[in-house]
Design a protein that fits this description.
The chain has 3 domains: 4-223 and 239-259, no CATH class; 262-382, 2-Layer Sandwich (Alpha-Beta Plaits); 385-500, Alpha-Beta Plaits, CATH 3.30.70. The chain contains 17 helices and 16 strands. It has helices spanning 9-19, 21-32, 37-43, 60-75, 101-110, 132-138, 150-160, 162-169, 190-212, 218-221, 239-249, 292-304, 346-356, 372-383, 400-410, 466-471, 481-485, and strands at residues 119-125, 172-173, 181-189, 251-259, 262-270, 280-282, 285-287, 308-313, 321-335, 361-369, 385-394, 418-423, 436-450, 453-461, 477-478, 489-500. The strands form 3 sheets. Strands 5, 8, 9, 10, 11, 12, 13, 14, 15 and 16 form a 10-stranded mixed beta sheet that branches. Strands 2-1-3-4 form a 4-stranded mixed beta sheet. Strands 6-7 form a two-stranded antiparallel ribbon. A hairpin with a 2-residue loop joins strand 6 (280-282) and strand 7. The longest helix has 23 residues, at 190-212. Bound molecules: zinc ion. Zinc ion is lined by residues 35-36, 38-39, 90, 92-93, 97. Residues 224-237 have a biased composition (Basic residues). Residues 196-239 are annotated as: Disordered. This is tRNA pseudouridine(55) synthase.
């Protein structure tokens, strides 16, 4: 039994009222106006009472009767014939304190199906109604008497039930913002609650579908932010209209939750010239076989039961380009995981990815990452070097000595790299702005396969258009392999051999 449970709040209030008649009179006056017991004690400015505990608290009417009796005996006053409890909804908190808040939060959070989490934090959103001013005016209460702010009162109620929360969720309730699970408790007009619940059910269904259909329908779940169903808000109501409505229907509790993302990082390899980086869609129908992200991401989406997932990588290669070992760094963000505390054996997942793709897509060095890895992945896109292996076709025959002569010619004296100028390639002009930029080529080597085919090894600065470096893109890249060999040149096959940070 907790410390607070040992104290009977009614007894304490009784004792206080016996000693303080002025307080008792004021309290009765407020209760007569239909305010709930929590609000009445709060408005009277006494923060000592443990009326914070909302569970099994007597109704305002019961307390009123008891206290009235006390006042009658003390002052011998006449009985008030009017029934102050006609109004069911407290005009100050609009029903918030009249409900068992803590149990409601626990029940509604449990309905969100989080099976495990390490810590949680509760934030409260209360409509800005400034309800106290009404009673201060009506009852001509002394404003110098400190009213206890509603939000402060509410926080205390919840904090006093800390143990209850921790037992229910087997988790720590922490006051910091950095808690793993964020529980946002909102009070909204009761008539909006039902509508909101039906939206939640819709989301729940689509969430389950998204896990099942990730492979078939991943465009909607990967990289695309889920459309949130908007709650309809009361239309352009004035503050007074709003208050009137609240008095009639009251406020009900609504819970929104979001768990901190889980990050997984590693390198991927791709051994096919038909697998794209991300899913391709034509008129909303997915084209071709699975993409790299579809071979990797769904495994983690399933195990952590995420709401959605984001797949990021340090650049990407074209569909017909292979990515060889050690692979390209990538990062997965699992958004709002519902089962986050999984201890997973990453080597087992590396094996699963390999088996499921028949070795076409592999992942290595898998491990948990952080949000900081995102910056590193993005920076890598600009700063890294790339090593390519490829096969080049030449329209004119060549030989070893000519190759040596050409390679020697491109390097200026005392420099181990050379610069090429590239205008935005024709093939990407429809989606990128026209730019002319310099790119460094750090190394260039050729092995003669036969007089028309060369095996090329080259290391280039990030962002070099490698196909255009070979074929010259109608003279838009210079110097190019075509220009150097003074004939037509095409890249027949390309592999990314390494990404060097
Ligand atoms: Zn109230």
């Amino acid at each position: 039994m907790s410390f607070f449970q040992k104290i009977n709040p009614i007894n304490e209030l009784n004792e206080f009222c016996e000693k303080n008649q002025e307080f008792l009179e004021k309290l009765l006056k407020i209760l007569e106006n239909g305010y709930c017991i929590g609000c009445s004690v709060r408005i009277c400015g006494n923060s000592q009472f443990l009326f914070y505990k909302t569970k099994s608290l007597p109704t305002s009417e019961e307390i009123y009767k008891e206290l009235k009796q006390k006042l009658k005996t003390a002052m011998n006053v006449e009985e008030n014939q009017t029934n102050p409890f006609k109004t069911k909804i407290c005009p100050s908190c609009f029903g918030i304190l009249q409900n068992d808040i803590v149990s409601d939060i626990i029940i509604k959070t449990k309905k969100r199906f989080y099976s495990s989490f390490k810590s949680f934090n509760i934030s409260l959103q209360i409509p800005d109604l400034k309800p106290e001013s009404k009673i201060i005016e009506e009852e001509k209460l002394d404003p110098s008497n400190q009213f206890i702010a509603f939000k402060h009162y509410l926080k205390n109620i919840i904090f006093l039930e800390k143990i209850n929360f921790e037992q229910n969720f087997n988790s720590k309730m922490v006051p910091q913002v950095k808690a793993k699970l964020e529980i946002c408790v909102k009070w909204i007009p009761s008539n909006e609650i039902e509508e909101n619940n039906s939206n939640q059910n819709l989301n729940q269904n689509s969430n389950q579908n998204s896990i099942q259909n990730l492979n078939q329908n991943s465009n909607q779940n990967l990289n695309v932010k889920r459309k949130r169903t908007r709650r309809t808000k009361p239309k352009r109501k004035t503050q007074n209209d709003y208050l009137d409505e609240m008095e009639k229907i009251g406020l009900s509790l609504d819970v929104e939750t979001k768990h901190q993302s889980i990050w997984i990082t590693g390198n991927y390899e791709k051994y096919s010239r038909r697998v794209s980086h991300s899913p391709w869609h034509f008129e909303n129908v997915k084209e071709g076989i699975n993409s790299v992200q579809e071979f990797i991401a769904p495994h983690f989406m399933q195990v952590f039961k995420g709401k959605s997932i984001k797949f990021m990588s340090s650049g990407r290669e074209d569909v017909d380009v292979r990515m060889l070992y050690p692979g390209r760094p990538f990062l997965i963000e699992i958004i709002d995981p519902h089962d986050p505390n999984q201890n997973i054996d990453f080597s087992q997942y590396e094996q699963m990815i390999k088996n499921q793709s028949d070795g076409i897509v592999c992942a290595n060095s898998l491990r948990f990452g952080t949000i900081q890895d995102q910056t590193q992945i993005k920076e890598g896109e600009e700063n890294k070097r790339k090593e390519y292996w490829g096969i080049v076709w030449l329209s004119k025959p060549t030989d070893k000595s000519k190759i040596n002569q050409i390679v020697a010619q491109v390097y200026s004296e005392k420099s181990d790299s050379f610069v090429i100028y590239q205008k935005t390639p024709v093939r990407v002009l429809h989606r990128r702005a026209i730019l002319s930029r310099e790119r460094k080529i750090f190394s260039l080597q050729f092995d003669l396969i036969n007089p028309h085919f060369l095996f090329m090894k080259t290391q280039t600065q990030a962002g070099t258009y490698i196909k255009e470096f070979v074929n010259s893109d109608f003279g838009r890249t210079s110097p190019s392999i075509a220009e150097l060999f003074q004939c037509k040149a095409e890249l027949v096959q390309l592999d990314v051999k390494n990404i060097i940070f």
